[in-house]
């Protein structure tokens, strides 16, 4: 397993750290503690971290513009004002299904937002993946247990997503202009052991950087599914990566202590913390979410 220079960005432990993203305009990283109902905000130039309490189980967000974010939560999508934290419901999301919550999500280069849901107890087949395209929310896939690894090729023609319940990473052709599927998903990577396929992001060269839950690492795959690298993360339950920094050359990685017994926590002293890995990669900026016009 490869070692790279690694620092702790935030020592606060997340029950279920997830959904990191980065706003280059303000040099600010954002991520969630889903179960803890908290949103973390880190000013990278100063290292200052602010923790915002949420009244919902937020799991991911996308930037709308300089003043607003679209926050994905267990009962809907909320427009959040970055200045004061006020949130207004934009679209309900399985609000009538008490057994589910949101999970992984990412913005396609076109501005379409892909969003995953799952059972609160990871019930088999209870989850789905949706696309928010120009204000309209449509279901793309159902019968998913744990949706993860939603990410896209730089040109927007390929989408990736995983069902961690099956431990399979899928590949699907997309319409680059809309971010919507043009064909059926096909299995790209299947993990047999050594941890689960969790959150992922694609760099400027099209390589897939995938957090391995239970493996304490980031796996790097080619667009053809060839395993290229494995980079150590100092917490066993590494959950999701995001490129950060003005040149997008570093990797923020969240982690979690969910489901860990006390002896497992003692054996994993950095469990639940948030890290920065100096991977010296060519990352890329996250697109803004495009909402309905008019």
UniProtKB/TrEMBL annotation:
Domain of life: Bacteria
Domain (SMP-30/Gluconolactonase/LRE-like region) ranges: 16-256
Active site: 198
Metal-binding is among the record's keywords: yes
GO term, biological process aspect, one: L-ascorbic acid biosynthetic process
Residue sites binding a divalent metal cation per the record: 18, 148, 198
This protein's record includes keyword Flavoprotein: no
Alphabetic keyword roster: Metal-binding, Zinc
Cofactor(s), by name: Zn(2+)
GO molecular function, one term: calcium ion binding
Residue sites binding substrate per the record: 101, 103
Cofactor, how bound (note): Binds 1 divalent metal cation per subunit.
Family statement: Belongs to the SMP-30/CGR1 family.
The name this protein goes by in its record: Gluconolaconase
Organism: Bradyrhizobium lablabi
